[in-house]
Specification:
CATH class of the largest domain: Mainly Alpha
Radius of gyration: 33 Å
Largest sheet: 3 strands, antiparallel
CATH superfamily of the largest domain: MetI-like
Number of helices: 19
């Protein structure tokens, strides 16, 4: 009796296991709750920063999709355009169309007499007005001798005034648009000669020193040709390398070194590939600078590690039973790979390729090293023509002093982001559409 009582007292003095577990569960649940809170805060901050970024880009760039136009009447005087009456295209292209635009402005404002005032008056419309008139006359010679009504783009400073970026009430010395110019614009507005229209030039023109004439089509074409070269080279080479390393290469120290170097190349800064392209493709092989062909070769070197790694992961995801079944019915290793393994791994390979192409589309540093930072006005027609790409065009516009290029920069960023989002969406759709779960 005495022994049993002492034993109960001894046991009552010890903590039971369930009590220890309950005490630990309380602290673990508190830690899990804190972790969830930290995760939600991190996600919320990321979404907030993303919202601020997109809001800043959109607020600065959406007005680039509209342009201010001014209506003028131009007398296409035959004595000034084609005094000999031969209608030769070469002579018509060399005529002084700018003088006709200036004469039209003087007709609308006959009270402007001083030379300085006339210069300010002429600056209401863009220099592109004369090119617009010249193209109309060259396309249709019957317009010579007539009075045409044209809507011509306004100068970039006038465009900024109409969009509210220039404060009318500020001191005249603090703004580039003078009081007289504001008065002339107000008169044109009262006569319904000023309108804001969709800016087609932004999507159809190449680069220009004048912001109101600058567009992204030249850079978009350069990006297209560059990505085509990159895709045609990187996809077959990357898939072939992945197939060999994963399916046929012997497991030895040499292949281990290759695999380590491929993984290391995926982390090399992109500008290093630009230096390699400058040294090899341009200086050694003498390829043309600022050409999509060279840009595509450089971006191929940069995207190959990404495609190889993604393709090898896709091959590993194919169950070994597929290979064993094909080999068991008499297929050769090459037939097994081509007809059974590769079709099942292709969706993952395509996804990795598209992600690599999206990465290449947003690169600028390696292309700056091979000269694609040049000022290119003409639209490239092939992979050998001088061109630039969208990221480099954004870089050039961001470095320009004119206020109008700020909105052009943001608008070009919006277009680039749309392309990147579209390419990533295609990658997700391909993965969802063709992915098989084993």
């Amino acid at each position: 009796m005495t022994k049993s009582l002492s034993k109960k007292k001894k046991n009552s003095g010890k903590l039971r296991t369930i009590d220890i577990v309950r005490a630990g569960m309380k602290s673990r649940r508190a830690a899990e709750t804190r972790f969830k809170i930290y995760g939600r805060i991190a996600i919320g901050m990321g979404l907030l920063f993303l919202l601020v970024l997109f809001s800043s880009i959109i607020s600065n760039g959406y007005q680039a999709f509209v342009q201010t136009y001014i209506k003028i009447e131009v007398n296409v005087d035959a004595s000034k355009i084609d005094p000999q009456g031969k209608r030769v295209p070469e002579d018509l292209s060399r005529a002084n169309y700018g003088g006709l635009i200036k004469a039209s402005m003087r007709t609308m404002f006959p009270e402007v007499k001083a030379r300085r005032d006339k210069r300010q008056l002429y600056r209401l419309v863009s220099t592109g007005a004369s090119y617009q008139l010249r193209q109309l006359v060259i396309d249709n010679n019957d317009l010579i001798g007539q009075t045409l009504t044209l809507w011509v783009p306004a100068d970039d400073e006038i465009d900024m005034l109409m969009k509210g970026y220039i404060d009318r009430e500020s001191d005249e010395s603090d703004r580039r648009v003078k009081d007289k110019q504001i008065a002339w614009i107000d008169k044109l507005i009262s006569e319904d000669r000023v309108e804001k229209r969709f800016n087609k030039t932004f999507f159809t023109a190449g680069d220009s020193r004048d912001p109101e004439l600058a567009g992204i089509w030249g850079a978009a074409s350069g990006s297209f040709f560059t990505l085509i070269v990159t895709l045609l080279l990187s996809f077959p080479i990357g898939v072939a390398a992945a197939v060999y390393l994963e399916e046929f290469a012997p497991r030895n120290r040499f292949t281990d070194i290759i695999e380590v170097n491929i993984n290391n190349l995926a982390a090399v800064p992109s500008i290093v590939f630009g230096l390699l392209g400058l040294a090899v493709f341009i200086n050694f092989f003498g390829m043309p600078r600022s050409a999509p062909l060279v840009g595509g070769l450089v971006l191929t070197l940069m995207t190959l590690p990404t495609i190889i790694i993604a393709s090898r992961a896709a091959l590993k995801s194919v169950p070994p039973s597929i290979r064993e079944a094909a080999l068991g019915i008499g297929a050769s290793p090459m037939q097994t790979m081509i007809y059974h393994v590769l079709p099942l791994a292709m969706p993952g390979m395509l996804t990795g390729t598209i992600i690599g192409m999206a990465q290449a589309l947003g690169e600028s540093a390696p292309l700056l090293m091979i000269g694609m930072v040049a000022f290119i006005v003409d639209i490239p027609q092939g992979a050998f023509d001088p061109s630039t790409v969208l990221p480099v065009q954004i870089y050039l516009w961001a470095d320009s002093p004119e206020r109008a290029f700020v909105e052009k920069t943001s608008a070009a960023i919006m277009v680039l982001l749309l392309f990147l989002i579209a390419m990533n969406a295609i990658a997700v759709l391909l993965r969802k559409r063709f992915e098989r779960r084993w």
